Amino acid sequence: MENALLVGLSRQMVLQRQMDVVANNVANVNTSGYKADRSLFEEFLNSGAHEDNFVGRDRRISYVQDRGTFKDFSQGPVENTKNPLDVAIDGGGFLVVQTPAGERYTRDGGLQINNQGQLVNASGYQVLGTSGPIVFQPTDHDVTIAPDGNVTVIEGTNRIDSVRGKLRLVSFAQAQNLVKEASNLYSAGQGNAAAPDLASRVRQGFIEKSNVNSVAEMSRMIEVTRTYSSISTMLQQQGDLRKSAIERLADVPA
Known about the structure:
The structure is a single chain. With 254 residues, the protein is an alpha+beta fold. The chain has two domains: 2-73 and 212-250, no CATH class; 78-208, no CATH class. Helix content is 25%, strand content 35%. It contains two helices and 19 strands. It has helices at residues 2-27, 214-250, and strands at residues 37-47, 60-71, 78-80, 87-90, 94-99, 102-106, 112-113, 119-120, 126-129, 132-133, 140-145, 150-155, 160-166, 169-172, 179-181, 185-187, 194-196, 201-204, 206-208. Helix 1 (2-27) runs antiparallel to helix 2. The longest helix is centred in the last third of the chain and has 37 residues, at 214-250.
């Protein structure tokens, strides 16, 4: 009976953490470039019976353990914004931005130009090119971003084509080691170095949406809630059974 309570409790603890993951995915369903998190589970076997009359597999109790989470880096749907500064990345690459804490990486291609003429992301961090920050002149117009990341403009009234830089795209051999941070950014993580990504391509005027499937996540949230409630009912029944057994054992025959 005690084993049933412990197994049920271990499952509830896992479900609570799974709910946190699902809720975070739902909260970011409209976050551009967001990559969903998924939960990992495994069976944890523990020896719970210690009497000699329990042999073999009867001595092992199977608990539920959440091994951790992993990131789903599948491509999200692409939306045509017709904004020349918006870019979507086809492939596994990341844009590089400069933050006070160092270089960070993102799939959010909603870019803009700040008051200093610098290309920045939605949080105001500089978007880095292969030669550093990408800076525009006050007279620049008709910004064009090529599939390889080259950024060109028409300069002044003389209709002169000028190159302002090339978007720096990077990828990681161990992408699962990336660490999610605030502002929809990733840090490389320990022992995980960024490498130039020559395979990914840039699509100007588009933006990658979150790869979270809202219907699937809401269904998963309902499933987790119902499972938690079912286990709570089972634990209550086990507790009542234990209480009844103790009361019966305490009865002294007349």
